[in-house]
Automatic annotation (TrEMBL), chain B:
Species in which this protein is naturally found: Luteibacter yeojuensis
Ribosomal protein listed as a keyword: no
GO cellular component, as recorded: plasma membrane
Transmembrane segments: 260-280, 307-334, 354-375
Name of the featured protein: FtsX-like permease family protein
């Protein structure tokens, strides 16, 4: 009978944990704040609550005596949260960089089935047809705002590693690009002049690759080019070097063909008409997408992989940390067995003891979560990294530790603390009073 | 060893605590196994021993630039060169843009140079005599359920056919097995004749250029001098080349994805730091509780050194138990993950190297976490300990 009861309580606890975790994951932050406030009110107003607060105070006061084992909970959870937040910040940073590169006001046209600019090719006639299509915005002179572009890949060494080779994208752009991509600002030097072998470099490329300072010469396809400016755009274009389409095409012997045409639309609504007219045109076989969709797609694969890896690693580490916390809290209760038994003997009920042990664990977990997420935020927020993107060339991106991610990290920490505290708390409440008092 | 039963008993003195600690250790080594498999998946191109006698010659300006086909005869004449093959990137996809196929148009002698591609003689013959013939690695064939004799339409994201069609028909004439020690991913490739590629290609230039050259050396130690001589052939031309060993090429390519090794070791650092702290704490607790027993052991004649040894051994045993279980679990889980990713994550099974490194780590961490309590136990003063001071 007794063992049956014990089993039932254990089963119930596991069920509570499962339900709690499910609710916890779904709960938005106002819900959790409300929960915390409700707990505070309960502790301030009701008799049981006041008792809980007193017991918790005793527990917290003795934490310093159990510094070694308490720090295990804190550091363990900080590790889990740190790794998780760092991996997610990497994935989020990459996705965000590509996402912000595109928008609904511009559309990109590639040869049908080519998927990325590198694989695409459009001859001059096709490019002209695209530019003249309905829905393309015209400037004051009535000329359509469009940029026929080429992306080639050059080998440049990474900063500080002169022997390394990285595929750095070089984009040939037409003059309309300044109206088309108004997020691009020159922050140093000047724009390149059409017809000359001049380049401007993105801030990201400048930070990652060797020899791109303004005034320096670099060799591309056997010719010498001069860097004349640095631009900022806060998206994946910052990974690139830009020059005039004609100059790039002649250096890489591409004739008059381009790889893609990007156009400014009258409005996002005119995309459908623009696309329909190009798809219906028998002279062309092209893929038409908004730039938002085009760049968004490029981030999908890697973002998914990074997220999956981050969460898998996080879950395995969390399992380890839960058992570490369980160990620590069981030991803590062991150490305080007499004290808890005394409290029970003088009339404290089970609830205050359970809640206070849980509170103590979750406070330790919260501290761990804050430390882990904080370290990652300090070290990695804005950290620049690069990887190979869809064009077989480097995409420079920054880790982005958003408040949302910090919040996710803290939620994980509290969840680990909850599981790690619940079972020891139940043990504390069920401690046989007489036996505990007799023990040394 | 004769004290094993004592150590064992000490370890399971408190079953719950030991169990919890073991689960934590297990989790840490499960992660270690999985991450090490990932790391070796990315580095295996760089340390496979099979390709040591091969050089790759690519355009110095960028990997997307092709090289003139006429270079081949001049390269062949360089002393130290056994044979020169070439290949072109095809950018194939099968049915859906997500089904990316690692496909190459290759020269006729390519299979002789890549001797790790093992094809049954009959299929080899069939490949040589079929213009539209293709051979694929067994893993790739399995992924799409291809059999010898199948007609496979592959769409190129780069090259249209002369008639404007983007889909190229191929006849699957062989399925090869990669030889032992081949680079990871060798069994995922698709090869077909460069001749077919040239003839049917809409881009007329394809006949006069190749994507890159593969140079087989007469001996591996000539790599440096041959590479220099080949690059000298086209120095100051508009198609300068860069020749390096296949390993160097693969390593630099992987590096471009990101520093996988660094990420993996950073995560492992965090995991093992936590593990040491956690297990160290458990060990300290366990020894503190047993102060009395240890004093009794010393009283009945155990030397201080054997007490030290026993506590150290306890730590190592704890780590070994949890760690071996963790690595065993990783051995089971890694192939499942690789399969589940549908060929996206091409993880090799856990190798001997991972196991050896793992066991060394277990012993080191075990000794580390046992050290402090062990020294305490060794220095234990019998009288004080028995008196509970």
């Amino acid at each position: 009978m007794k063992s049956l009861k014990k089993f039932a309580i254990g089963l119930l606890a596991v069920l509570v944990v499962a339900v709690f975790l499910a609710i916890w994951i779904a709960l938005p932050w106002p819900g959790i704040v409300a929960l915390a406030i409700a707990l505070a009110i309960w502790m301030a107003v009701t008799r049981r609550g006041k008792q809980t607060w007193e017991v918790t105070k005793v527990g917290l006061a003795t934490v310093t005596q159990r510094l070694g084992s308490s720090s295990v909970v804190v550091v363990g959870i900080a590790g889990v949260v740190g790794v998780l937040v760092a991996m997610l910040a990497m994935s989020e940073g990459f996705a965000e960089t590509l996402r912000s590169t595109g928008n609904d006001r511009t559309a990109i046209v590639l040869r049908g089935g080519s998927q990325a600019e590198l694989n695409s090719i459009l001859d001059r006639d096709s490019a002209n047809v695209v530019i003249q299509a309905p829905g393309v915005k015209k400037d004051a002179q009535g000329k359509p705002i469009a940029s026929g572009e080429l992306v080639v890949v050059a080998n440049l060494p990474r900063k500080g590693e002169p022997d390394s080779d990285s595929n750095v994208p070089i984009r040939g752009v037409s003059e309309d690009v300044w109206n088309l991509r108004d997020q691009v600002k020159i922050v140093q030097g000047r724009k390149f002049k059409p017809g000359l072998r001049e380049l401007i470099v993105g801030k990201g490329a400048l930070a990652q690759f060797e020899g791109l300072d303004v005034g320096k010469n670099i060799r591309l396809a056997g010719q010498t080019w001069t860097v004349v400016g640095v631009f900022e755009s806060n998206d994946s274009l910052e990974s690139e070097l830009w020059g005039d389409t004609q100059s790039v095409a002649s250096a890489y012997r591409r004739g008059s063909s381009v790889q893609s045409v990007t156009v400014l639309l009258d409005s996002p609504a005119s995309f459908d008409a623009f696309k329909a007219s190009l798809v219906a045109d028998p002279r062309l076989k092209v893929d038409v997408t908004t730039t938002r969709e085009y760049f968004g797609k490029q981030s999908e694969g890697l973002t998914k992989v990074l997220r999956a890896v981050g969460i898998t690693v996080g879950i395995i580490m969390a399992i380890g940390a839960v058992f570490g916390a369980l160990n620590t809290m069981f030991a803590a209760i062991q150490a305080r067995a007499r004290e808890i038994a005394t409290l029970r003997a003088i009339g404290f009920r089970g609830i205050p003891v359970v809640v206070s042990v849980m509170l103590e664990t979750m406070l330790l977990a919260l501290l761990g979560g804050v430390i882990g997420a904080g370290i990652v935020w300090i070290v990695f927020n804005g950290y620049t990294a690069s990887t190979l993107g869809a064009n077989f060339s480097q995409v420079v991106f920054r880790f982005h530790v958003s408040t949302g991610l910090l919040w996710t990290g803290i939620k994980w920490a509290l969840a680990i603390g909850f599981v790690g505290g619940l079972f020891p708390a139940l043990r504390a409440a069920r401690l046989p009073v007489t036996a505990a008092l007799r023990e040394l | 060893m004769k004290y094993l039963h004592l150590i064992w008993a000490a370890l399971f003195r408190r079953k719950t605590r030991t169990f919890f600690t073991l689960v934590s250790i297990l989790a840490a080594f499960l992660l270690f196994g999985m991450l090490d498999a990932t790391r070796s998946a990315f580095s295996s191109g760089g340390d496979s021993v099979i390709g040591v006698d091969r050089l790759l010659t690519t355009s110095r300006y960028s990997i997307i630039q092709s090289l003139p086909a006429s270079l081949s005869t001049r390269m062949q004449a360089v002393p130290g060169v056994k044979s020169v093959g070439y290949a072109n990137w095809f950018g194939g996809i099968y049915q859906d843009p997500k089904n990316f196929v690692l496909s190459f148009a290759v020269s006729d002698n390519y299979l002789d140079i890549y001797h790790e591609i093992v094809l049954p003689p009959g299929q080899r013959k069939a490949f040589e005599s079929t213009r539209t013939g293709a051979i694929v690695g067994e893993a790739l064939a399995k992924r799409y359920g291809w059999k010898v004799g199948d007609k496979i339409p592959l769409q190129s994201t780069i090259f249209p056919q002369r008639n404007g069609d983007k889909t190229w028909p191929f006849d699957l004439v062989g399925i090869y097995k990669p030889a032992k020690g081949a680079a990871n991913g060798t069994d995922q490739q698709f090869f077909f004749h460069h001749k077919y590629f040239e003839d049917a290609n809409a881009f007329q230039t394809v006949g006069t250029t190749v994507g890159w050259y593969v140079v087989q050396l007469t001996s591996a130690d000539k790599a440096d001098s041959v590479a220099k001589a080949i690059d000298a052939l086209s120095a100051n031309s508009d198609h300068e080349t860069k020749t390096q060993t296949e390993q160097a090429f693969n390593a630099s390519f992987v590096k471009q994805l990101g520093d996988i090794g660094l990420i993996v070791s950073a995560i492992m650092g965090a995991v093992f730091f936590t593990l040491i702290l956690l297990t160290g704490n458990t060990m300290a607790q366990a020894v503190r509780e047993r102060t009395n027993e240890l004093a009794v052991l010393k009283t009945i004649g155990f030397s201080s050194r054997s007490v030290l040894g026993m506590v150290l051994a306890e730590g190592m045993l704890l780590l070994l138990l949890g760690g071996i279980l963790g690595l065993a679990l990783a051995t089971v889980v890694v192939p499942i993950v690789a399969k589940g990713s549908g060929g996206m994550l091409n993880l090799p099974p856990l190798g001997m190297q991972t196991w050896i490194l793992g066991i060394v780590l277990m012993l080191v961490i075990g000794a580390l976490v046992g050290a402090l309590p062990a020294i305490r136990a060794m220095r234990l003063n019998i009288v004080d300990a028995l008196a509970g001071r």
